[in-house]
Amino acid sequence: MAYDMVMEGGRQTVLAEYVPEKGGYHSDHYQSEAELEKSFIAQLVQQGYEYLPIHTEEDLISNLRQKLSALNGITFSDREWDDFFRTCISAKNEGILEKTRKIQQDYIQLLHRDDGSTKNIYLIDKEHIHNNSLQVINQYEEKGGKHEVRYDVTILVNGLPLVHVELKRRGVNIREAFNQIRRYQRDSFWASSGLYEYVQLFIISNGTETKYYSNTTRDSAVKEQTENGRKHSRKTSNSFEFTSHWADVKNHNIFDLVDFTKTFFARSTLLSLLTRYCIFTAENILMIMRPYQIAATEAILNRIEVSNNYKKYGTTAGGGYIWHTTGSGKTLTSFKTAQLATKLPYIDKVLFVVDRKDLDYQTIKEYDRFQKGAANGNRNTRILTKQLSDPQAKIIITTIQKLDTFIKKNPDHEIYKKHVVMIFDECHRSQFGDMHAAIVKHFKKYHIFGFTGTPIFSANALLHGNPRFATTEQVFGDRLHTYIIVDAIRDKNVLPFRIDYINTIHAKKDMKDKQVEAIDQQKALQAPERVREVVSYVLDHFNQKTKRNNFYDLKGQRVNGFNSIFCAESIPMVKKYYVEFRKQLPERRKDLTIATIFSYAPNEAEPGEVVPDEEMDTSRLDQTSRDFLDSAISDYNEVFHTNFSTDSDGFDNYYKDISQRMKNRQIDILLVVNMFLTGFDATTLNTLWVDKNLKMHGLIQAFSRTNRILNSVKTYGNIVCFRNLEKETDDAIALFGDKDARGIVVLKDFKSYFEGYKDENGVWHRGYKELIMELRAKYPPGEEIASEAAQKDFIMLLGQILRLRNILSAFDQFEGVDPLKQREMQDYQSMYIVLHEKWKPRQKEKENINDDVVFEMELIRQVEVNIDYIIRLVAKYHKGHCRDKELLANIRRSIDSSVELRSKKELIEGFIARVDVNKDVDLDVTSDFHIYVKEEKEKELGDIIRSENLKDEETRKFVDNAFADGELNTLGTDIVKILPRMSRFGSGGKKREEKKERVIDKLKNFFDKYLGL
User: Which of 132, 656, 733, 760 is deepest in the core (most CB within 10 A)?
Assistant: First the structure.
């Protein structure tokens, strides 16, 4: 029977193609926020949602009881419902994380019936999704939080609020809807019975643009154990950067709320997202898959089902490959695909096959993150053999090398007869040829799928090797889904690149013999003088490229700048660079930490189309290189107090330790040949220093180490090339993007951002210089900005300037030409912070007062001066016997322009007064400041305890924990334990709440003042 494999049906959560319709709920006339909400609800009702005109918690709980009764086919008695609601739905000690786990994992709860029996109660039916009811409510009133609020639109699933929609009128910045939800989370979602802590997904829209994200994308504190057993807080991804657009299979984004509602809010789509495509990780983070990830997953599952029905397994027609650009979340997609494939009744095993031992380790860590113990990793072929024989081991992660060894040692194993899905991560050439032929020869009922960010086409295929396995399509079959680098940058899922080409050798113009020129050029590339100059350039420009003078939050800690990788062409060259860095660092940059890692690569001399795989076995290194590596590891051990070596386990653990320290930004420059240039993800990495020839696949892979999204400070991946790779870069971008991709993938030049530019549509984008002129003309430093309209204009104008300055600061040309001088910038920052503090209380009261005001506080904070800098200035002031009043004014300007230090202003001013009194006394200012802070901290805390009659020991413990965690946690029960005994009922209860709020405010001010001192 002939069968066209292109025509596949099955699951389709993401539409194949969406063409927006005209008319209907689309409207050309002005829409207020209320009209937008009304139209949105009407469309939901037309799509099968039941509208419920309820606004109070009493009605919400009553409806929940009815819906859970209907879903589970029972009638609750009053006692049964009260007990179930109190213990299973609204337990006092449960918050967002526990409730999220309840929806995602523990959605079957136990009901204890009046007759002594028990019954399973489903909160949501994940097997038969259309058994779940969908209702919509709006303007729900919450009076139990810090402020009385009305929520816009909420979707109830079986009576539980699982999806919340925050709307703004057209023309308003969508980020304000995001900020509004953050305020709700802080001020009211937890209030009353805490039902709004069940919300899994948030939708934000201004009608024109619509995005979605999961509940832990907000400011939520995740508890995790420290080594000493005490818990501390860690911030999750809480940036607006982690919100997503919905799209169709062809990656056409669906922006308008009407179109978004028709697709995303289709009943089957929304229920599929909630029941199949959310992942609550082992780190307590809820991840919702993006449309291209879902499309790829469903394409694979559909291909498995169709090819199974038509007995196409065991051929390339039963498989295919996914082209998703590097950094777009292939591991998450592969995990969900593997997880869902194991649920197909005829599939016995899913093998996730990676290319190297180091990637094997990283992938297991990633899979464990998504679901603890979901996958079985193996350190050797013996364990792999055991797992392949174990029917309980459903998902196995292994390397291509181990699988190849297994096949050679076990030619008649029973696994070859089983129905197996194989997923290859980053299909490099090591899967092509004889090894791949061996796999397909032995396994009989298989489906092979490849994931790659950089496929092998005929244009970039190597000429040697088996011609039948030269391209990705020849090995894996049809391309099932595509999401290229242009798509990812457009969607802000990865960052564009900013590339510097630094010329370090100059060819002789009269050189006619090209062969001699090439030899001379190679000698010049390896010359000690050039190595010295390259290292000197890196150290001179390190702060600029890695934004080392800028600050941001990482896992609850305040860190400055990013880190980098330096890649050299060979082991001899990386050794030369390591020695030169070690030589120059003590004289010039004692604050930087470097490390190196390399091992044997059998095809190291291969052109840079593919980054060669370095083996984890260091025994194959020549003795000189191994001795050198041992010496470098010894340097590392001394810095980090570790005990690694080049023996097999020691080197394996050395790799893992470097990987973790790179992610924690503890290593500033990692020198490599090939390692860490593929498969390694670290959001803190922003710069790649390149002194090796790269092209095509290898170039994109290496460059893509730098472009992971972190926050608004990191806006691009920085590439500094010490070789002219401009043509190679353009060729690679054209191959893996499209012919017009360069304008999206690579940032524009310095002149465009500094002086302005016209885009491809003829629209003029004002440059930094022009914006500075407007700022000075309209808002001279120090002058009050009186009207609300002018304040909004100033906030938006300075925001534009801050964003451009953040890009320009990495250009060498920017040094010395910034028209905005430091003092002027401080004055403008002070004005900006004053307005932020002025508008902040109003944000809590009513969101539409400042609908179109978005503060770039992360960009303000990145240029923070720290307390050590201020104390050094105070020491200088004291050394001059407190006569330099201009220096004193500079100290005060620095404090006023700092978000972090303004809360400490009173404390610093008090210390300056103390220094003034002792201007002729020989003081150790730094030491005296710490003594002064300790005295003031104890005095102020004692005053708070006495004035509020708090429990002394409990309060001090609570405060100590807050400083240790870096966060004052006021949402749990710990804050209640420090309060004096007060009645919880009647007027006593109200007074208790007022007392609690007053104590929180005092402790918050105290905490902000002394944090970091």
Answer: 733
Nearest to 205 by CA among 244, 154, 257: 257
Rounded to 5 degrees, φ, ψ at 718 are: -95, 120
Question: Residue 701 corresponds to which tokens in the numbers above?
Answer: 């892979």
Contact 1003, 959 (CB under 8 A): yes
Beta strands 160-167 and 149-157, pairing class: antiparallel
Domain ranges within the chain, ordered by starting residue: 33-56+128-288, 291-483, 528-747, 755-861, 924-1013
- Residue 700 to residue 746: CA distance in whole angstroms: 12
Amino acid letter for position 623: Q
Give CA 312 to chain center in angstroms. Answer: 39
Q: What φ, ψ does residue 37 adopt, rounded to 5°?
A: -65, -45
CATH tag, 291-483: 3.40.50.300
Cα–Cα distance measured from residue 182 to residue 218, given in angstroms and rounded to the nearest whole number: 6
pLDDT of residue 847: 40
CATH class of 755-861: mainly alpha
* Tens-digit pLDDT profile for residues 640-662: 999 999 987 789 889 989 999 99
Which residues, other chains included, contact 395 with Cβ-Cβ below 8 Å and sequence gap of 6+?
A: 338, 339, 342, 349, 350, 352, 367, 374, 375, 376
What's 528-747's CATH class?
alpha beta
The phi, psi pair for 525, rounded to 5°, reads: -65, -30
- Distance from C-alpha of 255 to C-alpha of 208, rounded to nearest angstrom: 6
Q: What is the pTM of this model?
A: 0.73
Q: How far apart are CA 452 and CA 446, in angstroms?
A: 20
Indicate the SS3 state at residue 177.
helix
- Residue 690: pLDDT over 80: yes
- Distance between CA 938 and CA 930 in Å, rounded? 12
Q: pLDDT digit string (tens) for 818-874?
A: 888 877 877 887 777 777 767 665 544 444 334 455 666 555 544 455 676 678 788
- SS (HEC) of 307-366: HHHCCCCCCHHHCEEEEECCCCCHHHHHHHHHHHHCCCCCCCEEEEEECCHHHHHHHHHH
Work out the mean pLDDT of the chain and round it to a whole number.
83
Q: What amino acid occupies position 432?
A: F
Q: Strands 231-235 and 221-225, how do they pair?
A: antiparallel
Alpha carbons 611 and 614: distance in angstroms, whole number: 9
Count of helices and strands (H, E) across the chain: 36, 31
In which band, very low, low, confident or very high, does the pLDDT at 219 lie, cut at 50, 70 and 90? very low
Q: Is there a contact between 446 and 314 (Cβ–Cβ < 8 Å)?
A: yes
- Which tokens hold the place of 325? 């650009």
pLDDT in the model for residue 4: 41
- Residue by residue, DSSP assigns 595-614 as EEE----TTTTS-TTS-PPP
CATH T-level topology, domain 33-56+128-288: tt1808, chain A (3.90.1570)
| 354, 402, 670 from 407: Cα distances, Å | 16, 9, 37
Number of C-beta neighbours around residue 232 at 10 A: 19
CA 72 to chain centre: 39
Find tokens 């000197």 and name the residue.
536
